[in-house]
């Protein structure tokens, strides 16, 4: 059985309550339950969310030999964090970057991802289904 970490950055703890016209009304707790049921007997998921950059970096560092991959939505840190980029580069755990909305269809400052160049791939714009698509990418 594969083990995948779903890692979310700042403000994603508000999923289902924040900007529902962009992000939808389902919470991550509800979505992770659906995802776990969909991949029962195939994937074990762990979920971690933090608004603190250092905690996200620690989670990436601790992924080595623990997870087969990380599905990572860095939130606003996507566009600013060299430290998260360096953490991903420093480990062998494959990371798939995800975004619920298309960052390319939003404000211009969101068009640049510090994460994308060091990730296995990037998936965006498919709502919460972006996470499932990232899991599929990791399962290969």
CATH topology: Rossmann fold
Percent of residues in beta strands: 15-25%
* Tally of contiguous helical segments: 5
The fourth-level CATH homologous superfamily is Dehydroquinase, class II
Record field, number of beta strands: 5
User: Which series of helices and strands comes N to C?
Assistant: EHHEHEHEEH
Q: Can you tell me the number of structural domains? A: 1
Q: What is the helical fraction, as a range of percent?
A: 25-40%
Under the CATH scheme, the architecture is 3-Layer(aba) Sandwich
Keywords:
Rossmann fold, globular, alpha/beta, single chain, 140 residues
Structure overview:
This protein has 140 residues and is an alpha/beta fold. Helices cover 31% and strands 20% of the residues. It contains five helices and five strands. It has helices at 20-23, 28-38, 53-61, 82-90, 129-139; strands spanning 2-8, 43-49, 69-73, 95-99, 121-124.
Question: What is the topology?
Answer:
Elements: E1 2-8, H1 20-23, H2 28-38, E2 43-49, H3 53-61, E3 69-73, H4 82-90, E4 95-99, E5 121-124, H5 129-139
Helix pairs in contact: 3-4
In short:
The protein is an alpha/beta fold. It has helices spanning 20-23, 28-38, 53-61, 82-90, 129-139; strands at residues 2-8, 43-49, 69-73, 95-99, 121-124. It starts with a strand and ends with a helix.
């Amino acid at each position: 059985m594969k083990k995948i970490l779903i890692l979310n950055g700042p403000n994603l703890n508000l999923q289902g309550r924040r900007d529902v016209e962009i992000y939808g009304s389902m919470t991550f707790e509800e979505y992770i339950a659906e995802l776990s049921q969909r991949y029962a007997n195939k994937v074990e998921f762990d979920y971690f969310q933090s608004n603190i950059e250092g905690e996200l970096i620690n989670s990436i560092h601790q992924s080595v030999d623990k997870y087969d991959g990380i599905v990572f939505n860095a939130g606003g840190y996507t566009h600013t964090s060299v430290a998260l980029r360096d953490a991903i580069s420093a480990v062998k755990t494959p990371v798939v970057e995800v975004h619920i909305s298309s960052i390319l269809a939003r404000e211009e400052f969101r068009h640049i991802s510090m994460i994308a160049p060091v990730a296995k791939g990037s998936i965006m714009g498919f709502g919460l289904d972006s996470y499932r698509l990232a899991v599929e990418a990791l399962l290969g």
